[in-house]
Amino acid sequence: MTLAEKMLRLDRRVIFLLIGVCTLIPLLYPVGLAIKVSPEVRGVYDYIESLPEGSVFLLSLDFDPASKPELYPQAVALLRHAFRKNLRVIGMTLWVSGTGMADQVVTQTARDMGKVNGKDYVFLGWSPGVSSLIITMGQDLYKAFPSDYYGNATKDLAVLQGVQTLRDVNYVVSLAAGTAGIETWYVFGKDKYRFELGGGCTGVIAPGLYPLLRSGQINGLIGGLRGAAEYEVLIDKKGRAVAGMDAQSVTHFTIIGLVILCNVFYLSLRRQRTERPS
Amino acid sequence: MIFLRRQLPLLITFVTGIIFIAQYYVPHPASEELLTTVNKWLQIIGGFALVLGVTSLFHQHAVKIRRREPGWGYSFVLYAGMVGTIVVGLAVNGKESMDGGMTAFGWIYSYTMVPLQGTMFALLAFFIASAAYRSFRARSREAAVLLVAAIIVMMGRVPLGEYLVPVTGDITQWVLNVLNASVRRAILIGISLGAVALSLKIIFGIERSYLGGGRE
Questions:
Q1: Using CA atoms, how far apart are residues A61 and A162, in angstroms rounded to an integer?
Q2: Which entry of A156, A192, A238, B20 is 20 to 30 Å from B123 by CA?
Q3: CA B38, CA B19: separation in Å to the nearest integer?
Q4: For chain A, domain boundaries
Q5: What separation, in Å, do the N-terminal and C-terminal C-alpha atoms of chain B show?
Q6: What is the pLDDT of residues B72-98, one digit of tens each?
Q7: Which helix (H) or strand (E) holds A201?
Q8: Are B181 and A12 an interchain contact pair (Cβ–Cβ within 8 Å)?
């Protein structure tokens, strides 16, 4: 067996080990390269920045723990920005398996920013229906969520004063790991109830949402861990996302190196087989 | 019997479909009230669908355990996990925290479900690297173009790539905003037209697969 054939049949455990090492070392010894902010992420940031104090910001955390590494930092960055601007924050989720995590991120970030539940923010939790829920919220928020996640009557909460339907919400951002997510919020929410919509998503589904971004259906898109890192740079509060970018850089380059190596061996083997006399 | 199993559902689908197509374009308060009421019903039915799903799962795995089919041990673990979580969840009324402290349900969620789901997703990174090594080969001109584009985008999406070759960032932005957006838009339009056609077929009773099988 030639070297090229051996390398093309490389045991995948070697690749697993390489990826593991390339992810671990930059996390232990970070470099901290500069992160350029993209127009997509700046779109969300600039819109929140333009909202006056007291505006209503709805953050829908539509993901489960599987997408926590990418979307949790996005949620933290967005909530920090919203609380810093003294916006009235409504948290909720369309994914039942993400409810606990969504509650954790909203409560913890609010606590860090000195915000009070019921007065500065509310976490509504989850309710069944997905598209039906969004439509019901668009018709009457209090019918969709008669109480918040902790059982407090939503009609009595100071933070929801003057908010009857989704039409009274100034900005909605959906952090989505798939369906139900940004497209659901647009089709059943923004299209009928005319609120401004932004999005955050995992890196895998980000390319699929560019048509919505280009047509103005969403005014910004935070894509993956890179998007979260860009947002952390914008709010000047570096966190987990920026910390993860070094590891992501090295891992990407490792995969690029492996792919180039594989093709060098593949093309060399193909040439050998062509040149070999029959 | 045929009327109840075939014709009545078709009639309900047709009438409801037509009403709610019209509802979208009628801004009258009665129309909005109808939408609110029906959506509330849909939410209630959605809640019952969860119960149905769990019951079906229970039954499927109970059969596997009873018959000692291959892999019945995993079914037992699933059963124990589900029953345990449901009992604990009901005992604390579904609350993950109470009076500032974490409940047992919260413990199960934070210390088993969250790390387990995160681990499953994290494993993908290793498998993607291995799959990329085995399959990203320039077997043809088209494959070579795909390969070059993938390498440029992978470089352009990380700070190290933009630092070493600054133009990769701009090329990545162009690929995503122009090439990718246009192709995705074409696919979305196709899917949407297909969804409209399928919906109309269902409303008019041409497509009946949702009624299920069985003798007429």
A1: 23
A2: A238
A3: 12
A4: 3-30+245-273, 39-238
A5: 9
A6: 999 999 989 999 999 999 999 888 877
A7: strand A196-201
A8: no
A210 close to A39: Cβ distance less than 8 angstroms: no
pLDDT at B101: 81
Burial environment of residue B56 by CB neighbours within 10 A (0 to 12, 13 to 18, 19 or more):
exposed
Which of these, A80, A63, A74, lies nearest to A221 by C-alpha position?
Answer: A74
- The residue among A249, A258, A266 with the most chain B CBs within 10 A of its CB, best to mutate, is A249
Three-class secondary structure of residue A10 per DSSP: coil
CA A157/CA B174 separation, integer angstroms? 46
Q: What is the 3-state composition of chain B as percent helix, strand, coil, each rounded to the nearest 5?
A: 80, 0, 15
Helices A224-234 and A68-84: crossing angle, nearest 10°? 20
- pLDDT value, residue B216: 45
* The two structure tokens encoding residue B20: 């709610």
Instruction: State how far the Cα of B83 lies from the Cα of A96, in Å rounded to an integer.
Output: 18
H or E element: which one contains A196? strand A196-201
The predicted structure's pLDDT at residue A278: 54
Helix (H) / strand (E) element for A222: namely strand A221-223
With contact defined as beta carbons under 8 Å apart, do A202 and A226 qualify? no
Residues of chain A where predicted confidence (pLDDT) is lower than 70: 277-278
**Measured between alpha carbons, how far is B42 from B39 in angstroms, rounded to an integer?**
5
Q: Which of B39, B126, B176 is facing A16, going by the closest CB pair? A: B126
Residue B186 identity: A
For B118, which of A68, A136, A140 is closest by C-beta distance? A68
**Taking each helix axis from N to C terminus, what angle separates A99-112 and A68-84, rounded to the nearest 10 degrees?**
40
The token pair that represents A145 in the structure block: 């969520």
Tokens standing for B59? 């039954």
Instruction: Give this prediction's pTM.
Output: 0.90
SS3 A274: helix
Assess if CATH 3.40.50.10160 describes domain A39-238.
yes
What pLDDT does residue B99 have?
75
* Chain A contact present for B16, CB below 8 A: no
